[in-house]
Design goal:
The chain has helices at about 10-20, 35-45, 50-55, 60-65, 75-80, 95-105, 125, 160-170, 190-205, 210-225, 230-235, 245-260, 270-280, 290-310; strands spanning about 5, 25-30, 70, 85, 110-115, 135-140, 150-155, 175-180. The protein is of the alpha/beta class. The mean pLDDT is about 95. It binds nicotinamide-adenine-dinucleotide. Nicotinamide-adenine-dinucleotide binds near residues 7, 9, 32 and 36.
Amino acid sequence: MTRVALVGAGVVGSSWSLVFARAGLDVVVHDSDPASAGRVIDYVRSALDDPEALKFASADDRETILARLKVASSLEDALAGADYIQESAPERLDIKKDLYKRLDVLAHPNAILASSTSGLPASSFTEGLKHRHRCLVVHPINPPHLVPLVEIVPASWTAPDIVDRATALMGEVGQSPIRLTREINGFVVNRLQSAILGEAFRLVEDGVCDADAVDRAVSDGLGLRWFFMGPFETIDLNAKNGIAEYCRNLGPMYFDLAKEQADPRPWGAKLVERIERVLRQKVPERELANRRSWRDSYIALLRSIKLTTRSK
Ligand SMILES: NC(=O)c1ccc[n+]([C@@H]2O[C@H](COP(=O)([O-])OP(=O)(O)OC[C@H]3O[C@@H](n4cnc5c(N)ncnc54)[C@H](O)[C@@H]3O)[C@@H](O)[C@H]2O)c1
């Protein structure tokens, strides 16, 4: 059985602990700030209070899942016997570089070193390491115990069997891994999100519509399909004979639109203020934490719908 060490127990590390523990794995959590590591148990306890969250947790009850979690005060203790290490330290190159020097020495040579980094390629903090072949990015979407997608991004020196093992483990613990063949800025998810956000800001800046209209174009429009199928599957069903017909009919229109969108713009402060005013009318600042909890419950509910309808 795989034993997991989690290094860094903030927003993402806490959620990872639930992913692995509910899948039946022993998890040791370490954070350089002992108070953060201690809060993980409370986080998991309260996340499991949501009855929808337990539905992804096999048949195990809350106490069984919690019993699999341990906190280690030292990095050495956390890594002892671990064969998969998920690092979720802050997104700072200097911190990751220092940490990986220690991980390289302390972790068993066969252990996988996976980073949650949102944007740093593994090659930027593992270059000089003796065992750099076992390092790669396993990038979650927050919070990973509710959102299953993970991006598996190898450096040029990551061994293929490490990529295979990390991908297999993610599947075993109920995540949905996608493999990239190489490092690229933004990986896949943030590249897609960047394209949408760039256009969303442009539409508001040019006065075509307001922020609420953009949000509803996705939440009441595109997003309903995207909840269960991707953009290629979507267009495949939007022409009688499938994707090739769709591309023949509408490819030229999209090409013209892409030319209009080709000139990227910074998100200026005044524009951001304008959009923020619309959003704060809907959810005041003091309500943001509650709104996040509402989002998480909603995602949990949608996932359970997905799990029950997938087999049909
Ligand atoms: N927050 C997100 O939405 C999100 C999503 C996907 C990926 N990520 C990535 O996950 C990583 C962590 O992000 P986060 O949002 O959880 O950050 P965070 O600031 O909430 O947590 C980082 C934790 O790491 C601890 N830490 C600092 N130095 C350490 C060290 N040397 N050893 C062990 N622990 C250390 C800190 O005490 C803190 O608890 C980043 O690389 C980030 O890019 C974040």
